[in-house]
From TrEMBL:
Keywords: Transferase. This is Glutathione transferase GstA. CDD domains: GST_C_Beta, GST_N_Beta. It comes from the Bacteria. Residues 88-207 form the GST C-terminal domain.
Length: 227
């Protein structure tokens, strides 16, 4: 399988799930400006929307949208039941509920904070995100979103919250979420994914990660991730 991705983008979520499940995956970088891939493909011919992630299966079929991809990956091997409970188990629906919440209420609004076109309403967007984070902070059922088990929703939340420093959102005001970031960042397979994407830890607590070029452009320094 091929996973089309940008370093530290939302494609990091299915990348983490592949690592957690031990799936053999080829990472293919996509240039945001040219939509050309690292192996010379026209990404728009693969995903006409132009954004990542996209998962190309061995038979050439392509699946897009992160929440759909991580569910497919978890369902593709028996071990995936640990990350996404089986159909008919209400815990599966709870995980799916969080996937929908994250994509609609956190992922998309946070992306708008990176776009200067929306700068006139950034404060309003940040206020909405803060409201959602406050709610989520009070909902954590244990170490992870639904309790003791790490799921596909936790990987997605980790990736979105990893953008907090770049969107002027201080997670330390929500201790449960800040602790969540530290726990996920310490997972061996998560660290493998971070290292594979050449991400660096740059904050004092070592729970936020970014590409070296991004850090350098922002006048920050970081340290490479080691599993």
């Amino acid at each position: 399988m091929k996973l089309y991705m940008h370093a530290a983008a939302c494609s990091l979520s299915p990348h983490i799930i592949c690592r957690e499940l031990g799936l053999d995956i080829e990472l293919v970088q996509v240039d945001r400006q040219t939509h050309r891939t690292s192996n010379g493909e026209d990404y728009l011919a693969i995903n006409g929307n132009g954004y990542v992630p996209a998962l190309m299966l061995d038979d050439g079929k392509v699946l897009t949208e992160g929440p759909a991809i991580v569910q497919f990956l978890a369902d593709s091997v028996p071990e995936g039941a640990a990350l996404l409970p089986e159909v008919g188990n209400i815990r599966r629906n709870e995980v799916q509920s969080y996937l929908n919440f994250i994509t609609a209420e956190l992922h998309k609004p946070m992306v708008l904070l990176f776009n200067p076109i929306y700068s006139s309403v950034h404060e309003e967007i940040r206020a909405l995100i803060s409201k959602r984070l406050a709610w989520l902070n009070g909902r954590l059922a244990g170490p992870y979103l639904t309790g003791d088990a790490f799921t596909v929703a936790d990987a997605y939340l980790f990736v979105c919250l990893n953008w907090s420093p770049w969107t002027n959102i201080d997670l330390k005001q929500w201790p449960a979420l800040h602790g969540f970031m530290a726990r996920v960042a310490a997972r061996p397979k998560v660290r493998e994914a971070l290292q594979a994407e050449d991400l660096e830890a740059f904050d004092a607590d070592g729970v936020y990660f970014a590409p070296h070029a991004y850090l350098a452009s922002s006048g920050r320094t970081g340290s490479p991730v080691r599993p």
